[in-house]
Amino acid sequence: GGDVAPLGSQAVTKIHQIFDWAKTSNKGLLLFIDEADAFLCERNNTYMSEAQRSALNALLFRTGDQSRDIVLVLATNRPGDLDSAVTDRIDEVIEFPLPGEEERFQLLNLYLNKYLKKGEDNRDAKPKWSHLFKKVSQKITVEADLTDEVISEAAKKTEGFSGREIAKLVAGVQAGVYGRADCVLDSQLFKEIVEYKVEEHHQRIRLASEGFQPLLFS
After folding, report:
1. If pLDDT is split at 50, 70 and 90, which confidence band does 53 have?
2. What CATH architecture is 5-88?
3. Geometric angle at alpha carbon 147, from 144 and 150, rounded to 5°
4. pLDDT tens digits, residue range 181-201?
5. CA-to-CA dists, residue 125 to 52, 78, 87, angstroms
6. DSSP class per residue in the chain
7. Where are the chain's structural domains?
8. Which of 69-78, 83-92, 141-150 has the highest mean pLDDT?
9. What global pTM score does this model have?
């Protein structure tokens, strides 16, 4: 969804081209739009440009009738932001709930193993401006006191976190370790970063409930 806005006035043309191509394809087309709310939000949204509004209207025009040529799949974390005309066109809704405590424990272990114990580069969770800094290749040492019990406690505290937030939490742990001269990860540093990220998560929820849009780097 976030790729539509940069197209500007060309977005309408591109949308029509996709649907025209689907009609000529023997197999049809499955069109998947991730972060759909970035493109298909309410048309009375103050922040929507005229080009985005026109692109949304073009999509609504092409999806007004039942079609065997195209299947449209939308993914969003903010279904309430979708335009009412878009939700009227949705035949099936599938909810993917936030990870539970056991899933969060598994995710924390997965990312800790992948990005700290194995030393891989956490590209997906790193901020976009991280390329401005030199690549850190120093080996990370994980102390034995970072036990499953410590990680399990972190899983309990991160209730309400999405998978992406957990990945970013581990990216924060990785950054914290590289900020130390000895590049050592122990339970104390891990707990401090978890506490910080949990407070950051709750603050973001408070700001959203008050109508503020916090400035976030991703």
Report:
1. confident
2. 3-Layer(aba) Sandwich (3.40)
3. 130
4. 999 999 999 999 999 999 999
5. 28, 20, 30
6. -TTTGGGTTHHHHHHHHHHHHHHH-SS-EEEEETTGGGTSB-TT-TT--HHHHHHHHHHHHHTSS--SSEEEEE--S-GGGB-HHHHHT-------PPP-HHHHHHHHHHHHIIIIIS----TTTS-GGGGGSPPP-PPPEE-TTS-HHHHHHHHHHTTT--HHHHHHHHHHHHHHHHTSTT-EE-HHHHHHHHHHHHHHHHHHHHHHHTT-------
7. 5-88, 101-209
8. 141-150
9. 0.68
All residues at 6 or more sequence positions from 33 whose CB lies less than 8 Å from its CB, including other chains = 1, 39, 40, 72, 73, 74, 75
Which tokens is 156 given? 């309990």
pLDDT tens column, 84-119:
888 888 889 999 899 999 999 999 999 999 988 776
Contact call for residues 139 and 118 (beta carbons, < 8 A): no
Distance (Å, whole) CA 183 – CA 166: 21
